[in-house]
Amino acid sequence: MKKNLFLFWLLSVSLFSMAQPSDAVIRKDLTSPNTIDIKFTKTTGTRQWNSSSGNWEYVRGVHIRLKSKDYPGLVVKVVGDAVYQYVGAAKYSYQKFRTGYNEWEGIPNPTEADIEKMISSDWGKFYGYMFRRIVKLNSGPTLAKDKNFTWSNPNQVLFFMKINADVIESNTTIQTVEQEYEVRLYRDNIKDPWKSFLATTGAANTKVLSTQEVTEGKMRELEKRTLAYTLAEEEALKEVAGLPELIVPDFSSAREMADFFHDLLRNGNPELLKAAMLKTLAPHLMVDGSKTQFSWQGKEMYDKAVKQAFGGDMKYKDQYCKNYSTTSLTSKSYIYIKGVLDKAITMIGTISANDGYKEGVPQVKLKLVNLDITVRQDQDAVNFINSFSDKSKLCSN
């Protein structure tokens, strides 16, 4: 019985070997007028069962180099499988070519300067989730020399980059890692400059070189050295350097602060408002440890204030008098300024907060905790304001 089974197996193998298409046949089946050459990935193919068709297939991996129809002078390398289907009588018939991916030849790879220009346009996009974890960049980003550029088409290229960095792993752990990034550049036309990029990485692309335990105090210090923090601080410092000079006094009451901001909103501009808010916002509305960066809440407050006071056809100065009056909601900490129109009210909120230490003594100052401006842009408001030939008549004082 065992002998019969062995003979059956031997016969099957022999028939399979005899039936499989030769290299010459495969080359003939795959050759077209644009074919330059065909190479096989292995010395032989594989026989596999196709459950969809319910039949055996013979699959041979190949690289086909073709002259491009769409891009004269370029060569496309098609990597995939020649698929043959069993037709009985120990024969296989060519069925299809199953494309895996394409590579292109004859296109100059992007230079290091090209790559640097693209990825440096948005470091957060390049580094991804590592952007807020990297506390020291030891080397890179540099091209991975052991991997080639791969062209999906003349307008899209893939390559790999590496960095060596110290990163935050946990509340008390710093790791030195080698991180690999898969990067793609995109453009609209082969003659155009690169337009955008996509970078991806993950835990599978991380090689841990060393691990160091640090104290919680040290970690708090390191969190202010992440790439995200330091690059944002650099950009903020540049922006602040371009803001106008503004002397902001120490305020002894909410009314004093309200007077200051009311005058600024009437006679100033977005840049002056930003300079004032950077010096007066409560600590939680600023990025921890920074004098130049709003927190997301602080930025939201500033953006809304700019839009309301300066962004519409009707400005703050059009609807608020120099000598203002307040509503009954006004308190010791919150000032509600009445405009010349119903529902035109601006609220300025204050809080006493520690602005740092001097000789160990907290320096408590009055800080801005809320700035909520309403400037009406509806047609009725516009009609009312424009009905006055002398705008000074809007204000009785």
Q: What would a concise description of this structure say?
A:
The chain contains 11 helices and 14 strands.
What topology does this entry show?
Blueprint (H helix, E strand, L loop, with lengths): L1 H18 L3 H8 L4 E6 L5 E5 L4 E13 L7 E14 L2 E15 L6 H8 L3 H5 L6 E10 L6 E4 L2 E15 L2 E14 L9 E5 L5 E8 L2 H7 L4 H15 L12 H14 L2 H11 L15 H16 L4 H4 L14 E5 L6 E14 L2 E12 L6 H8 L11
Antiparallel strand pairs: 1-3, 2-3, 3-4, 4-5, 6-8, 7-8, 8-9, 9-10, 9-11, 12-13, 13-14
Main traits of this protein?
397 residues; alpha+beta; 3 domains; six-stranded antiparallel β-sheet; five-stranded antiparallel β-sheet; 29% helix; 35% strand; elongated
